[in-house]
Design a protein that fits this description.
Elements: E1 2-8, H1 13-25, E2 33-39, H2 44-54, E3 59-63, H3 70-80, E4 85-89, E5 93-94, H4 100-108, E6 113-121, E7 127-129, E8 132-135, E9 140-143, E10 158-160, E11 168-172, H5 173-179, H6 191-201, E12 205-216, H7 231-252, H8 266-278, E13 285-289, E14 292-294, H9 297-306, E15 310-313
Parallel strand pairs: 1-2, 1-4, 2-3, 6-12
Antiparallel strand pairs: 4-11, 5-12, 6-7, 6-11, 8-9, 10-12, 13-14, 13-15
Amino acid sequence: MVSIIIPTVNQVELVEKCLVSLLKSGPSAVYPWELIVVDDGSPPGLQKELRHLLRPYPVNLLLKEKNTGFATTVNRGAAVARGQFLCLVNNDVFFEQRNWLDQMMKEALKPRVGVVGSRLLYPDGRIQHGGIFYLPSHRLFDHEYRYRPGNYPPALMRREVLGVTGALMLVNKGLWDKLGGMDERFFVALEDVDFSLRTWEKGWRVVYTGSAYAVHYEGYTRGRGWADKNPFWLAKEMESMERFFQKWSGRLSLLRTAGRNKSESISRVQALRWQRIVFGRKKSFVTRTEKGWSTDESTLCQLRNTGISRTLRL
């Protein structure tokens, strides 16, 4: 089973639109799933309206008394989830593709895959998310292929990446429990990147697949840019960013923005280098095969024997 968790705050009609699009898409033709909506401390009147509006839908609605942030909200949903996989969905994500969850599960069921992200599009069809990469010189994370055409060929591929956005993130529940869920010290911002980095640190993989896609309005609740963000949300984002870099800045400074091959995905190159960083002095090998990159040692041995691999040491 897959538990689909939708965190929300101060929204009613938006949540219903998200749910309707999700249900119409028929998320999976293979796997059973459940829906969990968690309200992060909206005013009582809005919570009452949300409860009334969602009554006709097959949803487990959880209402928090206080606004404590994204991480605590999805953790609350995960605590009651019955699935072996968790799928986080922002309330401003809408689904056009049928069986999109099956495309993500195809990757999630592969060995040592802990997190799977998908291609997200702006309403105008351009790419909003194709994996996350880091810009050391600016101390910023960005989405790969942002603003490219929705059918940009590299964004249609699958690959290991440094991180994926929590706007649409599929997670192995066993890994989630080992990591203790999202780090609740981050009120909002970068908790998804933190989770991705910790996934690699535990020896699991973070994978992006372009075969699954959805439309993301990005920032519908908190605002899309510095100019239109509510001061409360902006302050909380700044606090989370400060905490994040206190935690990770030392090792992140070792990442590069480009690899040996300029056509290579930056996020994939950084994922491979991140493995080398987090395992310190341990030998870290990556393999490029006919099917892409692999870091699995048994696969490495097999590929060496068949002679179809090229091994690089980072």
